[in-house]
């Protein structure tokens, strides 16, 4: 089976390529490398000892993308390609709406032309908004606070409407919680360009001495220690969630949370990182970051019941693997 993986050179996409190849699927990656490096493709090959077809193509460019569909028989798509920095999306809303929505629609258009029926989409816990925890797939979604989140909510609606109009389509919407960690080989992981926005890559840069200290955004939230609580999931578990989703894909629209179901505060994550890696992470408490919510974790029972998938790796392993990868970055 050939799976087209858009954004397969990125953080979650590269780990998913490894998981798919190890499960016996063939992988065709399309990525324009706007937030990733081409070496990642060689690293995927090195880890799995398997071939990967790679195209440096922008998913919003119809002619280029059409040539991929006309060259290969594609059995299904996992669509990761997208811009994901929340703050940047507020400054450059048009880029975010254009890239994230046109890419999804272009893929749908070509799926129709080439009769591709299976579509797995990278959504986000951000679509729940500031809802009651734990977040359940059947909850009414609340408004998102930034253009990035809006592109995820809108893509979900677009895919849902397209699937409603064609009952043979199989659409799975995966709502990720907070992926961290890296492959145990230390070859692939999260390597954002510039100063990281997300907590774990910031922590690893501080530990490495590239940044002075971590700024913790607020310690007055109604949480266990006042700092924000999130559901961190090891990226390798998340990648395996995609294989389970693809194996179990059926007609209609199906939504799954991919998380661990457990909340960890910022301070708890910092302490776990220090303990796991025997290294200090200096930090300072600063003001809350606008748009952040206090607490977010998943109800993961639906994915367990219907996909037979559950996250296995704990916070200490996530911290060790994230650091192991960071130490390898030149
Ligand atoms: P990433 O930036 O590492 O990977 C995205 C990849 O898509 C990159 O390699 C980038 O070069 C590529 N890309 C972007 N626009 C493209 C285009 N128009 N054409 C071709 N390639 C393009 O991000 P990630 O963390 O691996 O996230 C993957 C997906 O999961 C994204 O859609 C993201 O919004 C979603 N997601 C991520 C998180 C997270 O915390 N990392 C949480 C929820 C959802
Ligand atoms: N945080 C800090 N300091 C930092 C970075 C983050 O204290 O330098 C805190 C945040 O305030 C929050 C927690 O660490 O409490 C996690 O923040 P991240 O930026 O790592 O992650 P978010 O939960 O804000 O958002 C992430 C992705 C979104 C995605 C969401 C899904 O960035 O794209 O998870 O749950 F939608």
TrEMBL record:
<dbReference type="InterPro" id="IPR005886">
    <property type="entry name" value="UDP_G4E"/>
</dbReference>
<dbReference type="InterPro" id="IPR036291">
    <property type="entry name" value="NAD(P)-bd_dom_sf"/>
</dbReference>
<feature type="domain" description="NAD(P)-binding">
    <location>
        <begin position="4"/>
        <end position="321"/>
    </location>
</feature>
<dbReference type="InterPro" id="IPR016040">
    <property type="entry name" value="NAD(P)-bd_dom"/>
</dbReference>
<dbReference type="Pfam" id="PF16363">
    <property type="entry name" value="GDP_Man_Dehyd"/>
</dbReference>
<keyword id="KW-0413">Isomerase</keyword>
<dbReference type="GO" id="GO:0003978">
    <property type="term" value="F:UDP-glucose 4-epimerase activity"/>
</dbReference>
<comment type="subunit">
    <text>Homodimer.</text>
</comment>
<keyword id="KW-0520">NAD</keyword>
<keyword id="KW-0119">Carbohydrate metabolism</keyword>
<comment type="pathway">
    <text>Carbohydrate metabolism; galactose metabolism.</text>
</comment>
<comment type="similarity">
    <text>Belongs to the NAD(P)-dependent epimerase/dehydratase family.</text>
</comment>
<dbReference type="GO" id="GO:0006012">
    <property type="term" value="P:galactose metabolic process"/>
</dbReference>
<dbReference type="GO" id="GO:0005829">
    <property type="term" value="C:cytosol"/>
</dbReference>
<protein>
    <recommendedName>
        <fullName>UDP-glucose 4-epimerase</fullName>
        <ecNumber>5.1.3.2</ecNumber>
    </recommendedName>
</protein>
